[in-house]
Amino acid sequence: MFRRFIDAWAEFVVEKRVLLLLGSLVCAVLVFAPMKNLYFDNSNEMWFLENDPALGDYDKLSTYFGDNEYFMIGIEARPGETVFSKDYIQMTYELTDFLENHDFLQAVHFSELTRSRNVEKFKVEPNQPTALGDFSNSGFGDEGFQTPGEAAPKADEPKRDHPIRAVTKVQSLTTYQATKAKGDSLDVIDLFPDNSAEFTGSDEELAKAAKLMESETLAQDFLLTKDFKNAMISVRTTYLKGTVDHHVALVAQTKAFIQEKGYEAKGFKFHYTGNPDISASFFNASMADQGLTLPLMFLLIILVLITSFRTLAGLTLPLLVVVGSVLTAMSFLAWLGWALNMLNVTLPIILMTAGIGDSVHVLVEFYHFRAKGLSPKESAKSTVKLVFVPCLNTSITTALGFLSIATSKLAPLQEFGLVAGFGVMAAFVITMTLLPALISFSKAENSKEIAEEGKVARMTHKLTELNLKYAKVIVAGAILSSLVALFFASKVEVNANFVDYFKKDAPMRQDLDYFNDTYKGGFYLEFILDSGKDKGILDPAYLKKALEFQSWAESLDGAGKANSLLNMLMQFNQAMHGDDPAWKILPDSSDLAAQYLLLYSNSSPTEDLTDLKTFDERKMRMSLRLVNRPTNQMKVFVQEIQDKVDRDYKDLGITITGMPVLYNNMDSYILEGIVRSFVLSFVSISLCFLVLLRSVKYGLLAMVPALFPILLAGGLMGALGIHLNMAAMIIAAVTFGIAVDNTIHIMSRYIHVRKGGGTRKESIDAAVTETGKALTFTTMILFFGFSILMLSTFVPNIHLGLFGALILAVALLSSLTLLPAMIFLQKHKIHH
């Protein structure tokens, strides 16, 4: 029945070709329409599922303590100077004013707005022009913003865009306030005048500020270094789920302002870190990669097709297939409402390489039939009948390789796997509809020359004798190299640290090294302490034990300074006792602690402490700076703290969260996902082989040439000390799915000839010769296509390109040598 369907399909796509082409044009318009909705996202929650416990704990930070993401700008003083120079402070005034008052705005929908806290404080006048454009026509009126307590718009109401301010608070030397006693009250003293116009820059004013900061241990190694050679500006940014556009705008416009002012030309060195800078780095690198790799990939395919077929149809028709499959897949991504990210921006490259194979096979067989004297229409029909089943099987196995990735717990990998699998099947549909219809118009006169001549065709003819003569040597060599690879593969470790996604010379990575060396870290491990009752965090016993825990955490190797309410209370206590260092201790009663907080709030400070404690004073936040390290080491570090908490500090109600915990979980998901996806890919593709070949022995035999190169790649990773990450997960599942395509074509042709009465040698020679040319051309495209990814900015993409190209090259070699050698050593018969 299936054979009758294929025959009918071949008749339909050729005889009804004009109708089919017109229908395809209509479908193209409908399919590609959603692409206008594509957007880029590299937010933290993008990497996790909505019900992920680690993400839930991370979200509690913003729920309890407001926006929790910071953009940090580290600025080195000029050689021979300190940060207390007139030019440095004037620059800090200008940059702080820019960050506080410049309108870094992002238009968001109501659905996003309700997920952001304290929306009212970001309100902007409806007709106010912004740095990102004029929002006067954004659709909101005098009613202002919808706050979290308001009702959401009805289903039939159109979504209205609202601008959200990206910066919520700026901390710098020019906004710093010291806390001192004034009689029975606390008073805040500005380090520098609030109004920059009042700053004189005199030696006396600067010396006074420097003298004050010598005793401000709270700010030392946090806002500035003890030697006064470095200081930072800490920018608290709006936390919005599902978008980082406001962060990208903030970073880009800040750097543009710094360049415009010429601060670096004046001798100041700038360094950036924090989630906004990371998001901007990912975005900028992704866009740069696409601008380089996609055109190169397209040019490569053109060159290979021209070399292979030397006809206009041989050049344009495969391009039509790959472009159509890529656009269909990206449209599918947009239709599902998913965003572009640093992972799926590689989809066009991967789909272009994976989707070209079937079209090359179709063209090679078409020219074979033309060389035999068949008309273009009859050649197109015969080609569909011959390659439909092998191409279907190769598409299914490749799609299964991609779909196995979708079993990961990481949302971007799930989306990547589903969209890529869909794109591969879309390429098959286009190959079996548009391609036969179009090539049936071909009038190429050099069909015989294309089909038979060339170095590749001559090379494949010689392989059969070599495989027969050296069969045992080939198999023994494969076994020996597999054992060596297995040894090194066992040494591979998992690492999902985002820093290692960038090359060592990347500005983001060098800047993070600066923060590690200068401030003992550029990001934080966060602790939420829950006392279990209102005012509970002010209890002296609770405070004492919390300080004990904080001091222990700060003493750990690679830990920097912790920021918490405890520091503030000790500073208040010292200030109220004549700034005597001996009184830098916690208040000895709940009433005294509460009184200090009241006195502080009455002093009109710029810091309101809402980012350190909840309003009911049941919970408080502790932020510990950490030096960057691989996730396997970070996992040990966090686990050490968790064990300590479970053993000695259970009554503090501590929840450990922050970016290190998220990346630790990602690390576990990657390892679990690699095992699950590869096992699923192996089992599902093995079943496909068993069904296709109808032989357990030949089904398992055909898996060897696909598994062998993956094992070699794993051994090479271990030998080179390359860590497992998302790229490794994609490499294992995807290349396995693509690599088995070679064995499918060879085994299908071998069994076909064997059933026709051919000997084992004749069948192997026919299989290698007749499919070898198409497989070689396809692998060339795949090899160079993956190799282009090595030009990427992202290290995982570089590894994807390196090992993907290696695996596919070895897979071709294995299919043309190892597989025939193993068949020669078998004594299995194929029955008619």
From TrEMBL:
Residues 319-441, 699-825 form the SSD domain. One of its GO terms (cellular component) is plasma membrane. It is a multi-pass membrane protein. It is found in: Cell membrane. The chain crosses the membrane at residues 18-35, 292-312, 319-339, 345-366, 386-406, 418-439, 470-489, 674-693, 700-722, 728-753, 774-795, 801-825. Keywords: Cell membrane, Membrane, Transmembrane, Transmembrane helix. The keyword Cell membrane applies. Residues 127-139 have a biased composition (Polar residues). Pfam families: MMPL. Residues 127-160 are annotated as: Disordered. This is SSD domain-containing protein.
